[in-house]
Write a structure and sequence with these properties.
Strand order of the largest sheet of chain A: 9-8-20-19-18-10-17-16-11-15-12
Oligomer: heterodimer
Strand content of chain A: 15-25%
Structural class of chain A: alpha/beta
Number of helices of chain A: 15
Radius of gyration of chain A: 30 Å
Shape of chain A: elongated
Helix content of chain A: 25-40%
Structural class of chain B: alpha+beta
Shape of chain B: globular
Number of strands of chain A: 20
Strand order of the largest sheet of chain B: 1-2-5-4-3-7
Largest sheet of chain B: 6 strands, antiparallel, barrel
Number of strands of chain B: 9
Strand content of chain B: 25-35%
Chain lengths: 547, 221
C-alpha cells in the first residue's frame, strides 16, 4: 500500500459489548458489513494497528419515511420540493467488533482490551496486511507477500473487497492435519470449493497425497490437472490423478472385522453371533489372509458340528450378504500403494455401489490406511510413509449423526487421533445436522457456505468454535461460491468469494428441460418404439410392461 | 370559472390589487398589515382576496433591482378601540365631516409571513424565484399587494420543479396554525396545477406528511 490510508469514519464511542465500538461514516464512504477496518492504538508504549470487523450498519440521518409514501414519487423529489438537502446527507452509524492487533510473536491476534477513544479516525485495513494476518500463516511480520510462502492454498478473496483484491491463502498444513469441513446446501458450491482446494494441494509447492471418496462421480474433471502447466514443477513434477472405479474396489474378506460382518448380516440371533465370533476369530488367527466364506463355514462346522442349526442359518446369511456381493473377495484387496502416493490424487468413484457397500469399502480402507499411518509414526514397517488427506463427499453418509454407519467408528477415531498420525479428513456435506457431532466438532477448519435449513445452521454454530461470531448471521444470505472460512486455518473468520477453478467443474446440475427436449427428439427419430396396433388377434408387440 | 390562465403574459404586477400596508412587525419574517377599507382607496380588497393562505407581495428596490418580496397571509386580527365602551363620542366642532370614531377606527389586521423573493422584470412579471429567507427589512407603510395566480405558480417553480422550500419556516412562524397554513398553500397550488401534472403526487406526499405530523403533535395519533 502506498500513501496514507483513507480515513473512512470516526469513532463515536463504545458499543453494547465490551469489544464493540460505534463509529460514524458519511454516505459517500460506503462501508459494507463484514469489512475490516483499522485504527492505531498505543499498547505498552508501541503503536499498534488494531483491526476490527464491521458488524452492523444503520442509518441515523436520512430522509424521513413519510417521503416514501408514493412509490411513483421519489423521496428526492419530495425533498427537493421542500428544500431539504439531498446530496450526501445520510449519516450511518456502524458497529464494529475489535479483533485485535497482530502479535508477531504469537503470530495471531491479541486483544488490546481497550476500545478506541471517541474521535479516533478509522481507515480501511490495507489488502496486503489482511492477506498476511487473516489466515493462520504464522507470519512474523504483519505485512508480507504471502504468495511466496510454501504450502498455502489460494482459496479466493475477501467478499467485501473488489474481486481478487484481498486474496486469502489457507495454510494447507493446518487444515490437512486438523481436518476440514465444507458445509453447504446443494448447489452452493461444495464440491467446487473442494476441487479448488484439491487443485491447490496438488500444486508443485505442496504435492499432497489425496484420496477422494466420491459417491456421485463429481470429481471426474480433476484429471485436467495433468498436463496443465499451472501444476507442473520445475523438477518435472506433475500431479497424478487416478480414478478408481467401483469395479476395482474390492474388500478382502479377511480384512473385515467381526463388527463389519455383524453389520452386513440380517438380524443374526445371539446364538449365531456367538458361533460367528468364535469362527471368525479362529480364521483371523491363522496365517493365511486369503480365505473365503466356505473356509469360514467349514471352520464353524468343525467347531460346532455339521448339523448345528445356527451354523446352517449363518451359512445362508453369509453367502447372501458376503458371498454374493462382488465387493468382497477372498484375495483381492485395494492395494494401498496404488491409491495413495505423494503428488497423487485418487478419486474413488463409488457411484455404482449402494450405500452399505460404500460405507463398507470406506471403513475397510480407512482402517487399513490408519493402521499404516500408525505403523509409520511408531516406526514400524509401513506401506505409507507420508501423511495423507482424505476428502469425503456426502460426509453424512460416512459419519451420520444417527450412528447408523459402519464407517462412523473409524471416522471418529481418525478425526480425534489422526492429527498425530498425519491422517487428515475433509468432510463435505449439505446436511451438517446429519453428521455425527463428534466428527464435525473435530474438524478444525470450517468452510461454511449458503445454508438455509435452520437445523443445519444450528449444527454449524454448535460445531464451529468461533460460533457466536456475528459473521455466521450471514450464512443464509450467501450466494453460491461465497463462503465463511473459520477455524484453525484462520486467525479470524472471514467471508470470501471462492476463486475460479483451473480445471473444469464436473458437478453441474442436469439441465432437465434440455434433456427432456433431447430425449423427445430422439424418440421421434426412432420409429421402432412406436406401438403396433393390437387388434386382439395375437400377441401384442407393444412396449407394455406390467411389472 | 376558467381554469388556470394559459396566457402567462397577462401577469402585470402594476395592475395587482392592493391589500393593505405594513403597520408593524413581530420579527424579521413576520409582519402586521392593516387591510385597506372602503374609504382608503377606490378598490379595497374583497374578502376572498385577503383570505387565510392568500399569497401577497411587496415591491422593493434593492441596489437598483426591483424585487418582489413574497409573503402569505397566515393570521388575522380584528381591532376595535372602542370595544367595551358604550354610547357615542362627541365629534370635534372644527371637523369638516362628521365621522364617528367608532366606525372609522375599527380595522382588520392580517399577519404576513415572508416566504422568499423574486426579481421583477421589465415586463412586470417575476423571475429568479428563491425560497431563501429575504435579507431585506420591509418598512412601515409599505404596500402589500395581492398575488395573482400566475405569479404564485411562477414563484413556486424553481428549475422547472415545484418547490415549497419555505414550508418549515412558514409552519414555525404560523405557530398553532402551522399545519393549516401549509395545507392551504398546498391546496391552492394543487388547484393551480393541471390535474395530470406529476407534481400533484408530490404535493399529496408533502400534504400527507404535514397532516400526519400535525395530528401527531396534537395528540391525535
Amino acid at each position: 500500500m502506498s500513501g496514507q490510508p483513507t480515513i473512512v469514519g470516526t469513532v463515536a464511542g463504545p458499543g453494547d459489548d465490551p469489544n464493540e465500538f460505534v463509529f460514524i461514516t458519511p454516505a459517500e464512504k460506503p462501508i459494507k458489513t463484514g469489512e475490516f477496518i483499522t485504527y492505531s492504538v498505543s499498547v505498552d508504549g508501541d503503536d499498534r494497528s488494531v483491526f476490527a470487523r464491521v458488524t452492523n450498519r444503520e442509518l441515523i440521518r436520512g430522509l424521513p419515511e413519510g417521503y416514501l409514501a408514493d412509490p411513483a414519487v421519489s423521496p428526492d423529489t419530495v425533498a427537493t420540493t421542500l428544500g431539504v438537502p439531498t446530496e450526501d446527507t445520510e449519516l450511518y452509524r456502524l458497529t464494529a467488533t475489535v479483533i485485535g492487533y497482530y502479535n508477531t510473536e504469537m503470530t495471531t491476534f491479541a486483544n488490546p482490551r481497550q476500545l478506541p477513544a471517541p474521535g479516533t479516525p478509522l481507515s480501511i485495513a490495507p489488502d496486503r496486511q489482511l492477506e498476511t494476518i487473516l489466515p493462520n500463516l504464522g507470519c512474523e511480520t504483519d505485512n508480507m507477500d504471502v504468495t511466496e510462502l510454501d504450502g498455502v492454498a489460494h482459496i479466493g478473496w475477501l467478499l467485501n473487497r473488489s474481486p481478487k483484491a484481498t486474496n486469502i491463502h489457507l495454510p494447507i498444513e493446518e487444515f490437512a492435519s486438523t481436518h476440514l469441513a465444507i458445509l453447504a446446501s446443494t448447489g452452493s458450491g461444495k464440491s467446487f470449493t473442494a476441487s479448488v482446494l484439491v487443485e491447490e494441494m496438488m500444486r508443485s509447492s505442496s504435492r499432497a497425497s489425496l484420496l477422494v471418496f466420491d459417491p456421485h462421480g463429481e470429481y471426474t474433471t480433476l484429471a485436467d490437472m495433468q498436463g496443465h502447466e499451472m501444476f507442473q514443477g520445475e523438477d518435472g513434477y506433475e500431479p497424478d490423478v487416478v480414478y478408481y472405479d467401483s469395479e476395482r474396489l474390492r474388500v478382502r474378506i479377511s480384512e473385515l472385522n467381526l463388527g463389519d460382518v455383524m453389520a452386513v448380516l440380517d438380524n443374526p440371533s445371539n446364538r449365531m453371533q456367538e458361533r460367528l465370533s468364535t469362527g471368525w476369530r479362529s480364521m483371523q488367527q491363522q496365517d493365511s489372509r486369503t480365505w473365503d466364506i466356505n473356509d469360514l463355514i467349514d471352520r464353524m462346522e468343525q467347531l460346532y458340528g455339521e448339523d448345528d442349526a445356527s451354523v446352517g442359518a449363518l451359512e445362508w446369511r453369509l453367502r447372501r450378504s458376503i458371498g454374493e456381493n462382488d465387493l468382497f473377495h477372498p484375495e483381492d484387496n485395494v492395494p494401498l500403494g496404488e491409491i495413495v502416493g505423494p503428488g497423487q490424487c485418487t478419486v474413488l468413484q463409488m457411484d455404482t455401489l449402494d450405500r452399505r457397500n460404500q460405507q463398507l469399502i470406506t471403513t475397510v480402507l480407512l482402517r487399513r490406511l490408519y493402521r499404516e499411518r500408525l505403523n509409520d509414526v511408531r516406526e514400524r514397517d509401513t506401506a505409507i510413509e507420508y501423511p495423507i488427506f482424505s476428502l469425503f463427499e456426502e460426509g453424512h453418509r460416512f459419519a451420520p449423526a444417527s450412528g447408523d454407519a459402519l464407517s462412523l467408528g473409524i471416522m471418529r477415531t481418525i478425526t480425534s487421533e489422526g492429527r498425530k498420525f498425519g491422517f487428515g479428513l475433509g468432510i463435505i456435506s449439505q446436511r451438517p445436522s446429519k453428521i455425527d457431532q463428534d466428527v464435525l466438532s473435530q474438524c478444525g477448519t470450517q468452510i461454511s457456505m449458503q445454508i438455509q435449513n435452520p437445523n443445519d445452521q444450528d449444527a454449524i454454530e454448535k460445531s464451529v468454535e468461533a460460533a457466536g461470531e456475528d459473521i455466521f448471521r450471514e450464512l443464509p444470505g450467501l450466494t453460491p461460491g461465497q463462503a465463511i472460512v473459520s477455524g484453525d486455518a484462520m486467525n479470524t473468520p472471514a467471508l470470501i468469494q471462492v476463486r475460479d477453478r483451473r480445471t473444469r467443474h464436473g458437478a453441474e446440475s442436469l439441465s432437465v428441460v434440455e434433456k427432456w427436449h433431447d430425449a423427445y427428439e430422439q424418440q421421434q427419430r426412432e420409429p421402432t418404439h412406436s406401438e403396433t396396433a393390437d387388434f386382439g388377434g395375437g400377441e401384442s408387440t407393444g412396449m407394455q410392461n406390467l411389472n | 370559472m376558467t381554469e388556470l390562465a394559459t396566457e402567462e403574459t397577462t401577469l402585470n404586477l402594476n395592475s395587482c390589487i392592493r391589500i393593505g400596508s405594513i403597520i408593524s412587525s413581530n420579527s424579521h419574517l413576520d409582519y402586521v398589515v392593516e387591510v385597506l377599507k372602503d374609504r382608503d382607496c377606490d378598490r379595497p380588497p374583497e374578502l376572498h382576496e385577503r383570505e387565510f393562505g392568500q399569497p401577497v407581495f411587496i415591491k422593493k428596490d434593492v441596489n437598483g433591482t426591483k424585487h418582489a418580496i413574497m409573503g402569505v397571509i397566515y393570521d388575522s386580527k380584528l381591532v376595535d378601540p372602542d370595544q367595551g365602551r358604550t354610547g357615542p363620542r362627541l365629534a370635534q366642532d372644527d371637523q369638516e365631516r362628521f365621522t364617528p370614531g367608532y366606525i372609522e377606527e375599527r380595522t382588520t389586521l392580517v399577519g404576513v409571513a415572508l416566504l422568499g423573493t423574486a426579481v421583477i422584470t421589465d415586463d412586470q412579471s417575476i423571475t429568479d424565484p428563491t425560497h431563501q429567507m429575504p435579507r431585506w427589512t420591509l418598512e412601515i407603510d409599505d404596500t402589500v399587494y395581492h398575488c395573482p395566480d400566475e405569479m404564485i405558480l411562477s414563484f413556486h417553480t424553481v428549475d422547472e420543479q415545484l418547490q415549497l422550500a419555505y414550508l418549515d419556516r412558514l409552519v414555525e412562524i404560523a405557530g398553532d396554525l402551522g399545519a393549516e397554513i401549509a395545507m392551504t398553500v398546498i391546496d391552492r397550488l394543487r388547484r393551480l396545477l393541471a390535474e395530470d401534472d406529476p407534481n400533484q403526487r408530490v404535493l399529496n406526499v408533502v400534504e400527507q406528511n404535514v397532516q400526519w405530523q400535525a395530528h401527531e403533535q396534537r395528540g391525535m395519533i
